[in-house]
Amino acid sequence: MNLANKLTILRIMLVPVFMIFLLNKIDYGVYIAAGIFTFAAITDSLDGYIARKNNQITNFGKFMDPLADKLLVSAALISLVQMDRLSAWVVFIIIAREYTISILRAIAASEGIVIAASWWGKAKTITQIIAIIAILLNNFPFSYINFPFATIMVYLAVIFTVLSGLDYVRINQHILKH
């Protein structure tokens, strides 16, 4: 169990902690949840960097890292719908894309093919994380000037989510033909 994999497990363990602070009436709970979410999102970049730098890429990491990301983002999105701070259609599009690409990756893995993250996929992840943090922090730092930063980031996240999904399917359509 290397450091990168430990960070992935930590990210998974932080999901229920994040949700406890977000969904319960705890003083400053939303802000603590935003801090936990931000920390967990940073560990996503950090674990990949550590694994590549130290040549410690494992099968566990290849499968659990994307799962940890999906759990964290899905928990945040579903919680934001419950809190009436995000529309369900946005969450449906994002989660549907995640299921679709996960199934595509599983089919590829069964044939010994690893589907690497694309630029579109990285842009999707970054915009989703920024959108979630902006919603959690009530559009801070733009809340004082009435600029809809969180709303813009949500729409960008949806656009990048759809484009990245289409790109993965286009590039890997040969896998689906088998």
TrEMBL record:
Membrane topology, from the record: Multi-pass membrane protein
Keyword Transmembrane helix set for record: yes
Main localization category: membrane
Pathway annotation: Phospholipid metabolism; phosphatidylglycerol biosynthesis; phosphatidylglycerol from CDP-diacylglycerol: step 1/2
KW Cell inner membrane (keyword) present: no
GO MF annotation terms: CDP-diacylglycerol-glycerol-3-phosphate 3-phosphatidyltransferase activity
Localization in the cell: Membrane
UniProt xrefs under InterPro entries: CDP-alcohol_PTase-I, CDP-OH_P_trans, CDP-OH_PTrfase_TM_dom, CDP_ALCOHOL_P_TRANSF_CS, Phosphatidylglycerol_P_synth
Extent of the signal sequence: none
Enzyme Commission number(s) of this protein: 2.7.8.5
Alphabetical keyword list: Lipid biosynthesis, Lipid metabolism, Membrane, Phospholipid biosynthesis, Phospholipid metabolism, Transferase, Transmembrane, Transmembrane helix
Catalysed reactions, semicolon-separated: a CDP-1,2-diacyl-sn-glycerol + sn-glycerol 3-phosphate = a 1,2-diacyl-sn-glycero-3-phospho-(1'-sn-glycero-3'-phosphate) + CMP + H(+)
Transmembrane feature ranges: 7-24, 30-50, 71-96, 102-121, 152-169
Similarity comment text for this entry: Belongs to the CDP-alcohol phosphatidyltransferase class-I family.
Role, per record: This protein catalyzes the committed step to the synthesis of the acidic phospholipids.
Family annotation (PANTHER family): CDP-DIACYLGLYCEROL--GLYCEROL-3-PHOSPHATE 3-PHOSPHATIDYLTRANSFERASE 1, CHLOROPLASTIC (PTHR14269:SF62), CDP-DIACYLGLYCEROL--GLYCEROL-3-PHOSPHATE 3-PHOSPHATIDYLTRANSFERASE-RELATED (PTHR14269)
Name used for this protein in its record: CDP-diacylglycerol--glycerol-3-phosphate 3-phosphatidyltransferase
